[in-house]
Amino acid sequence: MPRTTGIHHITSFVQDPQGNVDFYAGVLGLRLVKKTINFDAPDVYHFYFGNEAGSPGTIMTFFPHQDARRGSVGGGQVGISVFAVPPGSLDFWKERLTGFAISFDVVQRFGEQYIRFHDNSGLLLEITEREEGTESRWSFGGVPADKAIKGFGGAVLFSMKPDRTGEILNGLLGLERVNEEGGWVRYQASGDIGQIIDMNTKDLEWGRGGAGTVHHIAWRAADNEQQEQFRQEAEAGRLQPTPVVDRQYFNAVYFREPGGILFEIATDPPGFANDEPAEHLGEKIMLPSWFEPHREELERNLTPVEVRVLKGAE
After folding, report:
1. I need a surface site. Which of 121, 137, 174, 285 has the fewest CB within 10 A?
2. The domain spanning residue 132 has which CATH number?
């Protein structure tokens, strides 16, 4: 049976494109590693943020649309995206969020402390300290590399049918159920980043998709062969997985698990230096070959954005 090492990426709906770049690059200090379009709706950007290379397990992606309706977080969604930072970094992040007038709460779960806050579109985020995972080498906008976000600590799933979702996490993806307390159950994958998944133990009411909600969570497959194994397992479980879809920087297979959350299996290769030099990631709009003849028209319909150091960042 194949086993995922953890999260590959998480993709969300947000509103203002420049506001999205300002928050995740300017406030959180992540690198914009790819600026492209939604291949299924080319009038909308697709931004990818991560560590210096956009390594699997660090990638937060967005479909920003100025006129997007606001969603509501609830069942059938990833409720919270969790970032990991090096031990001893939480005070830095509390001060930084305070400096940008971003309110936050400090919460405890499974003996860990989390800073919980919303991004500028209402997306629910947490930051926690973790020993595991390679430290980022990216430093931007007053976030030093030794305090920078490593990538995902994991995610909190809001399932409509947590027992059934747990069967998928354990039986299909290979995560181990490791703990339960206070209405939450914890699963762990074998990797050292994006490996901790917490989930509600009681059914939740449906959320509503829109800006400020997660569209899907993607799990890592080492290569095309392992991805096909996952796809076959999903098919055998009557989850109706899609055929393999070429997303340029990884191959993707999608299915909706019984608790209502859209899951993806994404390959680690080829990565974000597939179509531009690693030192220039995210600097220009990259298009797949089939959209290249329409570049001028597409760019005309997209609001220009820039990565910039925000006022007050040190």
Report:
1. 137
2. 3.10.180.10
